[in-house]
Amino acid sequence: MGHRILARSLAPLPEESLPGFLLRLSYRLELSPARIGKLCGFSTPHRRLPALYLLALPSPIAGPFAEATRLSAAETQALTLTGSGLAATYAPLYSTRLDHGRNHAAAQQRWAVNLSSRFCSLCLAGDGSPVQNQFGGPWKLRWHLPVAFACTTHALPLSGSCPLCRNLPNRSPRTERSGLLIQRAVRGLHPAQCRQPLPGTRSTTADTPHSCGARFDQLPGTAPKLGPGDLDRVLALQLRIDQRLSADESGQPADPYYFRDLVTLAHLIKFSWPSGANLVHSAPLVSLIDTHATPITRQLGQPLGPGPRPAGSPWRAPDDPAQCAALLVAADELLSHRDEGDAGYRGRVQPLARLAFERLTPNLAAAFRRMDFSPTLARALARKTNGFYHAGGHPRSRLRTPSRDCQFGVEHVPALLPTAWWDLHFGELRELVGPLTGWNTRHVRRAASLKLAEMTAGGTWSACAEALDTPWSTAQQSLNILKRVLDPAEAWREFDQAVTRTARHLDSRTSRIDYAHRRRTLLHWSVSDATWRELHAGFTTLKAEPTSPSPTAATALVWAHVTQGDYLHSPALTALRTPGRDTTAVVASVNQLRAAARRTKGEKALLAGRLELYAAHLAQACDQAHHTALMTGTPRDDGVTQDGAPCAS
User: How far are the Cα atoms of 13, 26, 159, 276, 558 from residue 230, in angstroms, in the given order?
Assistant: First the structure.
């Protein structure tokens, strides 16, 4: 159905919001905002002006509205948070909905939007032009964002409440549902007048004397006076935030994680208050944060019991713009240290995180960990036990975040750190902790691989063990032994540095081995009887004893060479354990071959050499993705397979 074009309209002011435009237009036409909405196509029950229109105008609504007001489609959408581009640059607005009251609360808890706009009295007074002298200046869209707390044009903090009745300009009374505007049926009020109903009156009346009526553009604002130094800090932060709210040429924010991290750190400071008071070098700003945070931390410290729950959500941004400014100044100060590196940043964040999580209930702590923040902040926030991410926590937490920016993937990490890497990067650790038994060395090498997996794939040590096809119990045993071996604190630091050196070595490699592919390829592979006869040919002293070399032992040993894994977890031995068979003899046989490989004489040493050559040949075949064709040949002692193919060196 078509809608009548209004007799008169207005051109939108720069950065003007849809609620502000409706207020100016209704004042000019001497109609209520509800009537304007009806004439412009906002056809909803009871002439409601839904809050969701602040985000975007649906096409069936935008068309009639633009036609009735003589605006272009671009001008119409620019009155909304999405059409203006703010939703693209302010990350908390992503996927925000405002169509129901519960969504309004969720949007406020996520710091996505405030339905009640903050304001600058001088901006509302206008710029001196005839139209702004008559109908007032713009109610700006960005004033609906919690991160808007100051006016950089007039170098003033924003006000958040009416200077007379002290209520929020658009905080709906209990007699009215939240929407674009309160008292939508009231006409005759100036756009800069307070629409809050007086106590004892009905909010739907059309008579103006029942509204507060205070002029936001004429009375002194409610913003507290800040000293020159504090005001400079607040304005500087607001200027940086305003710049980040402006998209680049691609329409995307330069740093998509900035606002997410800023809000997360604001929560962290609030929940751990006053532990972060040193971030704000100003007693007035500390006092502002204290006024907001102390009731929340006191509420967190009270056990929940029967009776009414405390009013308000601990997640909401402060209604007072000055309190919000002080809290964000502290959060921005903490965020500014993220370029110090993971260790330095973590050292600043962790004390606050520990205290905050001690205070938060399990539900609140889980909600905190489900917040969307950057990998850098995730690494700083993650709890660690003995150098690894803590194994607990909510499954949707940020623990999946890699603990380092790596050029290699988890598929390039073997289950057991190769001896070449161990010799190259862990010499200083061995000197620090003293001689290690072969058993302990094996567990430290396994722990190093788990740490490499955490660096590139994230996750707890148990998740890393799963990624490397290492049994959970074995990984836990290795970490327990690692804890005993690295008893001095400096040994832990050297272990971390050694693993970091290994990671840098992997980063620098132009080609890397896909160990995960090798493990998948050899999952059902075994040394065939024919291949075993060729490998075993010519030996006269290797008798058929229980612990003598066997095809099963050869399969386990070759698998370990190719995958750089632990032969004890090879598919061959795992298959024996599944029906409960004894693997003692096979394990003893593998250990004899491993010991013989360090000798130069004897048939077992010669067999071990053949198996190493065969493993190199098989590894090359796996990497070239045609192992089936190549595995038919077996290597002779001269390094050439029986079918004539050269072995890998």
Answer: 31, 39, 16, 17, 69
Q: Classify residue 469 by burial, with Cβ atoms within 10 Å: 0-12, 13-18, 19+.
A: middle
- φ, ψ at 597 (rounded to 5°): -65, -20
Taking phi first (over 0 means left), then psi (-120 to 50 degrees means alpha), and beta for anything else, what does residue 273 get? Answer: beta
CA 212, chain centre distance (Å): 44
**Token pair in block for residue 380:** 């700083």
Residue 446 in contact with residue 475, Cβ under 8 Å?
A: yes
**Tens of pLDDT, residues 515-565:** 999 999 999 999 999 999 899 888 877 777 777 888 999 999 999 999 999
d(C-alpha 470, C-alpha 569), whole Å: 7
Residue 223 CA from chain centroid, whole number: 34
Burial of 528 (0-12, 13-18, 19+ CB in 10 A): middle
Listed residue (387, 450, 381, 466) closest to 416, CA to CA: 450
Q: How confident is the model at residue 174 (pLDDT cuts 50, 70, 90)?
A: low
Alpha helix segments (H runs only) across 48-91: 59-69, 73-77, 86-89
| Distance in angstroms (rounded) separating the CA atoms of residues 291 and 274 | 11
Say whether pLDDT at 306 is over 80: no
Q: Is 456:463 a contact under the CB 8 Å cutoff? A: no
The CA distance from 580 to 210, in Å, is 85
Residue among 206, 52, 211 nearest 44 (CA)? 52
What would the pLDDT profile of 465-502 be if each residue is shown by its tens digit? 999 999 999 999 998 999 888 877 788 889 989 999 99
Question: Which range, 56-65, 145-154, 165-174, 242-251, has the best average confidence (pLDDT)?
Answer: 145-154
10 Å Cβ neighbour count for 547? 15
Segment holding 277, helix H or strand E: none
Q: What is the pLDDT of residues 211-233, one digit of tens each?
A: 899 999 988 767 777 888 999 99
